Amino acid sequence: MLETITGFLQSYGYVVIFVSIFLESTGLPFPGESILIAAGIMAGHGELNVWGVVGASFVGGTMGDNLGYYLGHRFGRRFADRYGPKFGLTPEKLDYVEQRFRKVGPPIVLVARFILVLRQVCGFAAGTLRFPWWEFLLFNALGAALWSAAYGFGSYILGDQIDRYLHGSPWAYAAIAAVFLTLTATTLLGFRNRLRRQRETAAKNASAALEEGREG
User: What predicted TM-score, i.e. pTM, was given to this entire model?
Assistant: First the structure.
């Protein structure tokens, strides 16, 4: 896999970085992160310019997420209204999630790019939930800049060590995937539990208010 990615980068350079991260950011299962790391390593060996690597990653990520946002804003709500109830996502629950996302959305959008799966669906979800576009643009661009710099410059500086580690251990990719999957699962479960607790608290408050109204 590493040899294939390297071959594409040697042939097409920054275009591969931009296209792969653009497609991944729209929600497609594309190895954008792996390509960014490989490009950073190659930049460390003088085969690419590290600023070009980071710049192509930033532009591709920002544009891809905004396309995902547009698709979610244009089609996501219609899709959720039609198929959501089959999976327990009723219009009432969707409205509740939308209200909560308006409050907790900025930090989620900011860190989403660092979390597997969430990175792919964040733009579409934000558009579906009608998160304000200008806020999404701001925090998404900031997250894309931080992620591109962290992985691009990180692999550029530590390129030899990363390259040696990935070639020296057949379990390297499995270990990296396990870490990212664990972080993703923890984040999603935490968010789900938080929403459940908030719903329970809202229900208790509504019940208490109803009782007070009856007593009054």
Answer: 0.66
